[in-house]
Amino acid sequence: MLTLVATLSSYVDTTFDMRTDTPPGRDPDSHSPTLRRYHQLLWDKPLPNGRRFELRSDVPGAYLLHESDLGRFRLSSDTIANSHRKRLSRFYNAMPTGENEKFHKLGYTIGGSLVFPGNRVTGHQTINQRRGTHRLIEDRIDLTLDCIRRHYGKQESPLSATLALYDDFFALFDCFEGYVDFFLLQDLITPHSEVAFFLPFRDFRPSPLPGDLASYREYRERTLAFVESRDRRIARLNESVSLSTP
Questions:
Q1: Which pLDDT score, from 0 to 100, does residue 80 have?
Q2: What contacts 64, CB < 8 A, 6 or more positions away?
Q3: According to the model, what pLDDT value does residue 4 have?
Q4: Given 3-state DSSP classes, what are the helix, strand and coil percentages for the chain, each rounded to the nearest 5?
Q5: Which has the closest alpha carbon to 78: 24, 124, 133?
Q6: CA of 14: how far to CAs of 6, 109, 124, 218, in Å?
Q7: What pLDDT does residue 184 have?
Q8: Which of 43, 120, 167, 226 shows the smallest number of beta carbons within 10 Å?
Q9: Where are the alpha helices (DSSP H) in 118-212?
Q10: Residue 10 pLDDT
Q11: Number of structural domains, the chain?
Q12: What range does the domain containing 100 cover?
């Protein structure tokens, strides 16, 4: 094995739009080779317990796979910058075309993507699927992250049943702070270890979707601010990482 030492920033271009190497009509989360490579580079690293979370991208049928005595974890990518262009088409279409394109261009950088367990358990929806279909979450990453915070605190949330199916995955990170630090989500957390919501939080009710154009614009601005901050955090990773190749 040859060990190459390089700065992570030289491998992860935080300005790269994942749509540009995705076949037309396909989803970057599953079809962008650059996105998968970046996920592998970023998350193949030591866990809080010091063990390496080694990720393979060469296993048929698996986007990324970890397999060791820690367990077998199949991961998939999900976009966490959602414009709700279908559910809120009236607001989306009211925005200038340039602003919509800016949202998608930035949203499809690495800062706008996250990995979750991708295997279905006993026929139930995955985390990606459930957070997208649950009407109290509506695919919002801030609300999803608060559900994960509650999971670690053994508190109820709209995603409790789904997250419990993947308890072995969340146990890898020891605690909520460990999960946040591992996946570089610090810019969505307040100094008091609470979630910095994109819109005023009312305990998951009523609908989490913006109800007017002004709220929709605020939601998008805060979403992009988080993605930009996360991209900057990734770009600042100047410490050396070891990359092993055959």
A1: 95
A2: 36, 39, 40, 43, 55, 56, 57, 74, 75, 76, 115
A3: 34
A4: 40, 15, 45
A5: 133
A6: 16, 6, 34, 23
A7: 97
A8: 167
A9: 127-133, 141-152, 160-164, 167-171, 176-182
A10: 52
A11: 1
A12: 2-245
pLDDT along the chain (246 residues), means of 10: 41 94 95 97 96 96 96 96 96 98 98 96 95 96 98 97 98 98 97 94 90 98 98 77 38
Q: In what order do the strands lie in the sheet with 71-79?
A: 64-68, 71-79, 113-117
**What pLDDT, on the 0 to 100 scale, is given for residue 202?**
87
Looking at residue 11, its pLDDT comes to 82
Tokens of 10: 């030289």
**125 CB contacts (<8 Å, ≥6 apart)?**
133, 162
Q: Phi and psi dihedrals of 67, rounded to 5?
A: -145, 115
**CB-based contacts of 137, cutoff 8 Å, min separation 6:** 130, 131, 143, 144, 147, 158, 159, 204, 208
DSSP H or E segment with residue 62: none
How far apart are alpha carbons 104 and 152 in whole angstroms? 32
Question: 115 by DSSP, 3-state: which?
Answer: strand
